[in-house]
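Re: [ENG-882] Designed sequences occasionally contain unexpected residues at chain ends

Forwarding the minimal case from QA. Structure tokens:
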């Protein structure tokens, strides 16, 4: 049985995407006016704009101010249209996270407490449930909390400040890979591997696990960049 999205934004994303993929909204066509769409989908204009922005980031739509929203492609390619491009490109965002979070995970493995590990277990379990139910907003929140908990435990205030000041960009980079439906549980499995390394207090394994996770997430969003692991 198909899982049903539990937030109105996710439901709108799913419905519009299915219509695009089915050809109900052909490539090059203009979507119905936002007022009509919001009434049809029983969603607020603000939530609809969030859904349209996500679909634009996936490369399915292009929003032309004053002209409307057009179907750009019937196939999601997240890297084609990244809404934070003026601040940081999508490849640069993943590379920044790869560099900073890899170091943070190594430090966190040396400082993680039993209470922290219990928190991570709860977080990972909640993420599995959210992804299985296609609750992508909740999964993205849990994903961000997981990563920032590691950064906080690492105790490097400069790294934490950089990542928290880029919170919206970081969250979007975490959300995009979820739209590869066939790989939707990959983030859960990769977080599980990171947690296993933290539980073992193995700093090398923790750093490698989070770097592998970020590189894989980037690939699920259509971004590829060379890493030390890839060269090994």
């Amino acid at each position: 049985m198909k899982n049903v999205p539990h937030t109105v934004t996710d439901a709108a994303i799913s419905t519009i995407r299915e219509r695009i993929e089915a050809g109900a909204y052909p490539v090059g066509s203009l979507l119905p006016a936002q007022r009509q769409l919001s009434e049809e989908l029983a969603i607020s204009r603000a939530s609809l704009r969030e859904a349209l922005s996500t679909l634009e980031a996936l490369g399915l739509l292009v929003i032309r101010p004053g002209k409307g929203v057009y179907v750009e492609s019937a196939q999601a390619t997240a890297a084609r249209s990244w809404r934070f491009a003026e601040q940081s490109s999508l490849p640069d965002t993943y590379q920044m996270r790869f560099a900073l979070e890899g170091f943070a995970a190594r430090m966190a493995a040396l400082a993680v407490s039993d209470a922290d590990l219990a928190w991570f277990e709860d977080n990972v379990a909640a993420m599995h449930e959210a992804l299985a139910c296609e609750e992508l907003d909740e999964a993205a929140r849990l994903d961000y909390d997981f990563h920032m908990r590691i950064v906080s435990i690492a105790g490097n205030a400069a790294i934490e400040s950089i990542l928290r000041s880029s919170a919206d960009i970081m969250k979007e980079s975490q959300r995009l890979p979820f739209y590869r439906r066939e790989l939707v549980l990959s983030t859960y499995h990769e977080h599980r591997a990171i947690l296993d390394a933290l539980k073992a207090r193995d700093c090398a394994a923790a750093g490698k696990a989070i770097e592998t996770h970020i590189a894989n997430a980037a690939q699920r969003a259509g971004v590829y960049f060379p890493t030390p692991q890839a060269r090994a």
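QA comment: On inspection the terminal residues look reasonable. The longest helix spans residues 90-111. Proposing we downgrade this to a documentation issue.
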